[in-house]
Design brief:
single chain, Jelly Rolls, Immunoglobulin-like, seven-stranded antiparallel beta sheet
Length: 682
């Protein structure tokens, strides 16, 4: 559903210093709010062309929106119908519009959506709504607080300098101005973007409440409404009691779903009801959408009220189990009123396919009330606003199998070779079988795999060794020999003379040099050191021996030296960027912000543009997986990047599986890409 803004007669929240369009006359124009609802009395702006030169461009009006409430991308098209006229047919006036986005409350553009559009329909001398049709915009990624600016003017080829054009704004009529309509002083003009749902007014999908302990600041309530037993309880008395959202939302592309676990009984009285309304705010209007239950009739009714009445409501017999959940839902330009037994599977009861002005505004509220005319007092209860309880499914025991089984899920990734270990490890899956200890054998055995790799020369060892991988080949029996064999290494370097030591030393790295065969000698050899002692005749031995430590105070022919001092030292650098993320599972039916804590050792990361991706574990994000995210601060004061995820208005709606969140930060010249620990979506 497209997002409509209106040319109001209300003060602009911020006025950029620079006019960005290509204007010949760019002073004296009116500056007003580009609002999410009609507002203010009728207003006009007129400016003379001032010259008879060709293609003269004159700015008449600037409309500036409130700041965006979440980051995202404006894309698609822009369309408008605004009242306008020319003072003389020889003005030869046509629309000139320039539309862009500010970077917050600065004079720096975030990006341009529509560059100096020139219309093809000439103005008339009677003020009339002119709609040029949908115009494709250049997509612009925006951040929280950015504003849309619409510069409205005309292009003229006038025959006199005193000719002018007049544009209309303001008006609060209940019907929007249409093309060729002349009611420009009562019907409000508008500008509509096809791709901005939820960016400038929070969608109802962001409203969640389980009423666990209190009625908090998200709501306005009458005196009798309380949070009781984890539900909002609304008394049903002769005094109307109500509960409604305290701030504005919009239904475009989202839902307002809730549970009604308790409804009032007739109690020997009349006029008993509990009702939920979707209405333009700030308080409930008599023109609204209504779902209402009356125990006096036993009916659940779905109404499209105009002035408090609906001549043709939809009625069904109320069932407390089948109709435990109610919902208002918008998709593809239609609003539906639905019911559900569990908040998961919904049945549409009524569809509103022709949307009136109030259904497009960005100041809608969700309103609940209960009342009776007479009889015994009772109450209604509301719970789980856009919160669906976890569903538990009993699983049968997993069976063991001797052969590999195909996974039933559609998403897979190739696993690397399992690493060899010395002890048996528990499998991470639910299907297991106990493996017996490997039996020692005198000869090598062929492993029953089909993939093999060429192995290096086998070395004799006194202890059983665990295979390092699953790929093997059959080996001949190892041969014993009296002389040292050359190592089969590919990377070598020359070694300096070895220094004697009393203790065995760990090899300093993975690079080795091929050594020649050991030679037997009858006399000791002098090493290149200053400390020496005479050695006896070297004895031949079948196995390696540890050299004995020298006896203190004796001088011999063997020289020992200390380890040379290291000329260079290095320490590990601390990572400048780091992130933390959730590890707790989340239900795939839930729509909520995924928050990732981001720290930067050199400053505040929230000054940079940020994107997030959520992809299955084992995959890297593709270009299409990235979504514009927004910055926030959690209760501990940590800077977090957050992205709305879920089926009700989220940037994406992942299916159940194991995922990892990724964060991409544009902080020139750096562009860090960080990932979080994996988490489950169930």
């Amino acid at each position: 559903m497209a997002t409509r803004f209106w040319l109001t007669n209300a003060a602009a929240p911020y006025t950029p210093a620079t006019r960005r369009g290509a204007w010949d006359v760019a002073s004296g124009e009116d500056v007003q709010l580009l609002g999410r609802k009609p507002q203010g009395s009728a207003g006009t702006s007129s400016i003379n062309v001032g010259s008879t030169s060709a293609d003269r461009d004159v700015l008449l009006h600037r409309s500036i929106s409130a700041g965006a409430v979440k980051a995202g991308t404006i894309s698609g098209t822009v369309e408008w119908t605004i009242g306008v006229k020319e003072s003389n047919v020889d003005l030869n006036g046509f629309w000139h519009l320039h539309v862009y986005v500010t970077s917050g409350d600065t004079d720096t553009p975030r990006g341009t959506l529509l560059t100096d559009y020139i219309g093809s329909t000439e103005f008339t001398t009677t003020a009339t709504g002119i709609d040029p049709g949908a115009q494709t915009v250049t997509p612009v990624a925006i951040q929280v607080g950015d504003r849309i600016v619409v510069e409205i003017g005309y292009r003229a080829n006038a025959l006199a300098t005193t000719y002018n054009a007049t544009v209309n704004y303001g008006n609060t009529g209940g019907t929007d101005l249409a093309a060729s309509d002349t009611a420009v002083t009562t019907e409000p003009g508008w500008v509509e973007f096809s791709g901005t749902d939820g960016l400038f007014t929070a969608g109802f999908g962001t409203l969640t409440d389980a009423f666990t302990s209190s009625i908090d600041s998200k709501w306005t309530k009458s005196a009798g409404v309380t949070a009781t037993g984890g539900r909002a309880r609304i008394p049903t008395t002769t005094t109307l009691e109500s509960l409604y959202t305290a701030t504005a939302y919009e239904i475009q592309g989202t839902s307002a779903a809730f549970q009604v676990p308790s409804v009032p009984v007739a109690g020997g009285g009349s006029g008993v009801s509990v009702a939920a309304y979707l209405s333009a705010g700030p308080t409930v209007s008599t023109t609204n959408l209504e779902i209402v239950y009356s125990p006096n009739t036993g009916n659940l009714q779905f109404r499209n009220n105009v002035g408090g009445s609906d001549a043709s409501p939809t009625n069904i017999t109320y069932d407390s189990t089948a109709h435990a959940w109610w919902r208002f839902h918008e998709a593809a330009g239609s609003i539906t009123m639905d019911t559900s037994p569990d908040g998961v599977t919904w049945t549409t009861r009524r569809t509103i396919s022709t949307l009136t002005q109030w259904m497009r505004v960005g100041n809608q509220i969700l309103y609940f009330e209960s009342v009776r005319t007479s009889g015994t007092n009772d109450f209604a209860e509301i719970d789980s606003v856009n919160v669906v309880a976890n569903t538990t499914i009993a699983l049968s025991a997993a069976g063991s199998t001797e052969t590999a089984q195909h996974l039933a899920a559609a998403k897979q990734r190739t696993a690397g070779i399992a690493a060899g270990i010395e002890t048996a490890q528990r499998l991470t899956g639910v299907k297991q079988r106990t493996a017996t200890l490997a039996a020692a054998v005198e000869t090598a055995r062929h492993v029953a795999g089909t993939k093999t790799a060429v192995l290096g020369i086998a070395y004799a060892t006194a202890a059983t060794q665990h295979p390092a991988a699953a790929k093997t080949r059959q080996l001949n029996p190892a041969q014993e020999q009296a002389s040292a064999a050359g190592l089969v290494a590919t990377k070598t370097r020359a070694l300096s003379p070895a220094t004697a030591t009393a203790q065995a030393q760990h090899p300093a790295g993975a690079k080795q040099a091929q050594l020649g065969a050991a030679r037997q000698t009858a006399t000791s050899q002098t090493l290149l050191t200053a400390k020496t002692r005479s050695l006896g005749r070297a004895a031949e031995t079948e196995s390696a021996r540890v050299l004995a430590a020298p006896v203190p105070g004796l001088t011999h022919g063997l020289a020992l030296t200390d380890r040379p001092a290291t000329a260079w030292t290095a320490s590990a650098a601390t990572a400048a960027w780091a992130c933390t993320g959730r590890t707790a599972a989340v239900d795939s039916l839930s729509t909520e912000y995924l928050e990732v804590g981001v720290t930067w050792s050199r400053g505040d990361p929230s000054t940079s543009a940020v994107q997030m991706a959520v992809v299955p574990l084992g995959h890297d994000p593709a270009d299409t997986d990235w979504h514009t995210a927004q910055w926030d601060t959690d209760t501990a004061g940590l800077t977090v990047a957050k992205l709305l995820v879920g089926p009700d208005g989220g940037a994406l709606a992942p299916t159940p599986g194991r995922y990892r969140a990724w964060v991409s930060i544009d902080a020139p010249p750096e562009h860090p890409v960080l990932s979080t620990p994996p988490y489950d979506i169930s």
